[in-house]
Every structure is written in C-alpha cells, then in structure tokens.
Design brief:
Elements: E1 4-6, E2 9-12, E3 21-27, E4 32-40, H1 49-63, E5 67-70, H2 73-81, H3 83-86
Pfam families: Acetyltransf_CG
GO molecular function: acyltransferase activity, transferring groups other than amino-acyl groups
Domain N-acetyltransferase: 1-91, 2-91
Length: 91
C-alpha cells in the first residue's frame, strides 16, 4: 500500500481529495506540527492503515526536526500507547 504526501496530508488513494485513508496536520510555529485529523474508509478499517499513516507522519517529523502535537484522538492514543517509540517527537 502506497502512502503519499502532499499539502499537509498523508493519504492512500489517487489524490488527497478522494483518499481512502488520510491523516492531516497543521504547522504550529517553527518546529511543531499538529496531527489534527485522521479518516479511513470502511474497506480499510482494521488493517493497520492508521498506524502506517502515523509512521509516515513521525518519519516526516524526524526528517524536519519537528515535534508532533497529537490533537486528534486516534493519534493521541497511539502516541501514548507507545511512549518509547514516539517520545522524541511527541509534544
């Protein structure tokens, strides 16, 4: 499954507007991003796609020396379930 990234959206599908799954973020200052929304189609639920989107967001944060503010409940829950895995980027 290919995860694409454009215009502050990580997504699965042909484009961000018609994505089967997506995670959006906003920029918060010079070194933080806010994970503000996650959306999955029914056909992708239960396949770990949300976690894969989060992994791409975390990789993006690492590459840009950003921290992530986990505003969206799914992202917040995932980031606090695995504190060691995310502690260097979680804010």
């Amino acid at each position: 499954m290919e995860i694409k990234h454009e215009h502050r959206v990580f997504y699965v599908g042909e484009n961000a507007n018609e994505a089967l799954a997506k995670m959006t973020y906003s920029v918060a200052g010079e070194s933080s991003i806010i994970a503000d929304h996650t959306e999955l189609s029914d056909e992708l639920r239960g396949q770990g796609v949300g976690q894969k989107l989060l992994e791409h967001l975390v990789e993006f944060a690492h590459e840009n020396n950003d921290t992530i503010i986990p505003l969206f409940p799914f992202v917040k829950a995932e980031m606090y379930k695995g504190p060691e895995k995310y502690k260097d980027v979680r804010r």
